[in-house]
Structure formats: structure tokens, C-alpha cells
Amino acid sequence: MRKYMVVYRSVVMEHLQYGAQIAVGFISYFIIIFIQIYLWNYMYGESGALIAGYTKQQMIWYVMITEIIWFGTRTTTVTKQAAGDIKNGNIAYMINKPYHYALYILTKYTGEWSIRLPIYAALAGCMGMLMVGGLSGFRPAALIAALPVMILGVTINGVFKLSISLISFWTEDSNPFQWLYDKLLLVIGTIFPLEVFPVPLQPLFKMTPIYTVCYGPAKLLVDFSREKYIEILLAQALYLACGLGVLFLLYNRGVKKLYVNGG
Amino acid sequence: MSTVVKNQLRVCLLSVKYNIMRAMVNRVAFLMNILFMILNNASFIIQWLILLGLKPEIGGYTLREIMLFWGLAASSYGLANIFFARAFSLPNLIISGKLDSFLVQPKSVLLSVITSATASSAIGDFLYGLAIICAFCFSVQRLLLFLLFAVTGAVIITAFAVLMGSLSFWFVKAEVFGSNMVNSTINFSTYPDGIFDGAARFLLYQVIPVGMAIYRPVHVMISFDLTELLMVLGYAVLLSAAAAFLFYRGLRRYSSSNLMEARI
User: What ipTM does this complex have?
Assistant: First the structure.
């Protein structure tokens, strides 16, 4: 465990140097939220009616929170780096190091989002207060309670993304699978809450990673309830266990296929 | 003059041809990239079906017209990344001093640089756009206009990427800003202009070229207007000229990293 802590600390220290650069990357987030604010202002109009049980403010804050998760965890470590290591054979030099490769990549990913996510959250919070206003009925206790859900959510996301990258052991290029996973998260989990979808589809979407990665943390922040909190935490524990199982299975099978060219 | 242009075009096309041939070495990965990109784009139809389920028209457009925005954006971006993919990673070449191998070539440096890579997944983007226009609003006139505007859109997006990328000749940190600005063009282009008003509309038509690359062409495809068509063509030419001017101005400041590199 200590060696992973050292990796984590060194990644955090490295990324602290690039805080300003991460903040400049916030422009993309700003633009997307800017579009979403216009879109939902248009959708709600002047009537002030609810859409799928959400007020306009709740809907925009929901999108802002899911986009924070999306942007805050958008590092290339679990995607391009892991897939690249497999594709160019670099992994051969890393699997004989005194750490587990998959855990090393996950630790690196955790170090990266530990810096990115709080920066995005702070900037997004200021942006939301200025452009949308505070959430009515929001309790700071909900924020503290939702923190472990948020951490578990981004970890599950990393585990799934890394598992997809490990497909490179078989297909060489795992990018297309990443696109599909990303779009599943973006279209179904980020832009709308699950309640907006037709009722027969909702149980199906609850069984996808969307429920634990995007919907869970955002829903708890905009509309906290104890029952939902326990339900989401249990789903996350289950998802994390399954995700890690798939990750280690793919890794153990994949490294057996490893073929290293000399040079 | 015409021979020079013809030769330059031939070199560009050959460059793209070899890029694609290189990508096709691994046929499974090549085809997967194209197919999955089509699926990737198609997933956004769900978003619009849900939104249009909440309100029958968005920004004055129905699903048919919104798909025109999507189709044209996908095809324009696709064409830009088939022919000029390196324009989108120009800052990296400038900052790391990797332009040397292009400077010694007897043809246009800018065209040699931007045509030196092709994103195979962009073929999926282009095909998706074509499929959308055929599925949702096909007519021969609209298809011809669509192809013309896909070209002008690709030229405008590429020129904007070159403009933003060339800032790296002066400012090292311009890379992040530039890529954000280029990405914003793509983000805005997939939402109908009817939902934006005031300052946002000004921004989209005057600062980010999405108005001229996507919105105006879609208006022309819905209701033909020769003046608007000529405006789009003129804008594409002007922006390209501005991009080339800024690139060559910046190139005077370029310094090599003495990197030994062979382009095969």
C-alpha cells in the first residue's frame, strides 16, 4: 500500500504545478454549461413548470455536477496511456516493476483527479452561483454526505475505462470502445437525469454504470434523500466489486497474450 | 500558376492517400474506428428524441432540421480531419520544434503540415453526415448543397484551427486556449442557433466561426438564398487567407529543436 501512496503523492505534486493550466481547460466546461443553460432556459420557458420532477435550477445544477465529474476525471492515464502501453509494448517494462500495473494506473488516475476535480468543482460552483443562482433547499450536509458517493463514482468510472483500455491486448485499438462508453455516459447520464427517460427504460438504465457514476452523485446533491443515498452506495459497492473483478480478469488473461518485439 | 496549384493539390491528395493507406495496414482497427464513430454520433439522436419529446420544436426547428445541423457538423468536421487532421495538433509541432522536416520540402509548408495526418475515424464522421441527410431530408439539390457546405465547413474549421494553433508561435500557453476554442466550434455546431440570443448569438456569428460554418449553410439548405451562399464562400476564402497569413508570420519566429526526424 505504501508504494501506491508514494505514486499518488508524486502525481499530486506533479499536477499541482499545472493548476493554472487545468484552470484554463475550464473554458471547455464553461462553454458546454453555457450551451446547457441556454438550452434549459429555452426548454423551461417562462412557465416555471417542472420537467420530470426537476425545477430549472435543479436541472441545470444536475448537468453542471455531472459535467464536473466528466471533465474532472478526463485524464488520459486510464485511456490513452494504458492502451498505448499495451499497443507499443511499453507494458513489458512495467509489469516486472514491484507494483501491479493496473493498480499503478488507477493510483495515477486518482492522483490526477484529486487535483482536477476540486479545481473544476470550485470554478463550477462560482459559475453556477453567478449564472444560475443557489439551489433552493440545498443543505451543506448533503454535500458532505455525497462526497464518498462522488469518490466511489469517479473510481468506478476509472475502473471501467481502464478495463476497456485492456481490450487493446486483443484488438490493438480500444479507442472505439471508449467512445461508446463515453457516449453512453454523456447522452444518458450527463445531459439528463434518468427520470427524463421513458418509465419502461429507467430500470434498464439503473443497471448501467451511469447510475453509479453520474446520476447517483448529482441526484444526491440536487435532491438528497436518505433512502436514495443508501441505495446508491450499495449499487456503487456492487459495481466497484464487479468492475474490479472484470479488470483483474482482463489483465490476467491479457498479459498472457503479451508478445514483445525485440529492439 | 495553374500548374503550380495543380501540382500542390496533387501532392496534398497523395499525402492524404498515403495517410489512409497507412491507417489501413490494420484493417480491423481501421474499420472499427469508422463503424464505431458512426455509432458514437448516432447516440446523440437519443438526446434529441428526448428533448423533442418534451417540446415539439426547439429553437424553431423540428427533428428533421436539427439532424441537418448534426449531419453538416459531422461531415464538415469529418472532412477537416480526413484532409487536414494535423491542423488540430499544430501547437504541439510548433512547441516541440517538429516543423523542420516540412520546411525543407519544395511545396507549401502550411499545406504539407496540415495534410500530413488523417484521422481514420473522421471517415465515419463524414459518412454519418451523408447518411443523416439521406435519411432525414433527402433531395438532389439539398445533397449537392450539403456536399458544398461540408467542404466550406471543413475549410472554415481548419482555418480556425490553424489561426488558433499559430498563436503558439507567440505564446506557449496558447495551446490549451486554442484547442478549447476549436472544440467550442464543434460543441456549438450541434445545437440549433434558435436557442441562443443576444451576446451568445453575436459570439457564434462574429467570434467563433460556427455561424458561417454550420448555421448559415443550414438556413440556405432549408430555404435557398444566393446571397447567404456567397457570404459563406467568401468567408471561407477570407478566413483561410487570414490563417495562412498568421501561420507564415509566426513561422518567422519558429526555432528548431534540432530534432532528427525522418518522415516516411
Answer: 0.83
pLDDT band at A107 (very low <50, low <70, confident <90, very high): very high
Closest CA to A112 of A144, A65, A80: A80
pLDDT tens readout for residues A128-159 = 999 988 888 788 888 898 899 999 999 999 99
pLDDT band at A260 (very low <50, low <70, confident <90, very high): low
Interface residue B29 vs chain A (CB under 8 A)? yes
Domain annotation covers residue B256: no
Structural domain count of chain B: 1
Residue numbers of the domain that contains B62: 2-251
Residue with grid cell 464562400, as numbered in its chain: B233
Closest CA to B179 of A21, A178, A181, A117: A21
- In a domain, residue B257? The reply is no
Residues of B in contact with A177 (CB under 8 A): 36
Q: How many CB atoms lie within 10 A of CB A206?
A: 14
Minimum Cα–Cα distance from A50: chain B residue? B54
Q: Any idea what DSSP says for residue A51?
A: B
With a cut of 70, say whether residue B261 has pLDDT above it: no
Phi/psi at B58 (5° precision)? -125, 120
Q: How far apart are CA B78 and CA B121, in angstroms?
A: 8
Cα–Cα distance measured from residue A49 to residue B172, given in angstroms and rounded to the nearest whole number: 48
**Residue A174: closest C-alpha in chain B:** B29
Flag whether B123 is in a domain.
yes
CA distance B119 to A96: 34
- B243 burial (CB, 10 Å; 0-12 / 13-18 / 19+) is buried
pLDDT digits (tens, 9 = 90+) for B111-156: 999 999 999 999 999 999 999 999 988 889 999 999 999 999 999 9
Place of cell 478526463: A74
- From the list B105, B99, B116, the residue with the least C-alpha distance to B19 is B116
Which chain B residues contact residue A43 at CB under 8 A?
51, 54-55, 58
CA angle A221–A69–A132, rounded 5-degree value: 55
B57 lies in some domain: yes
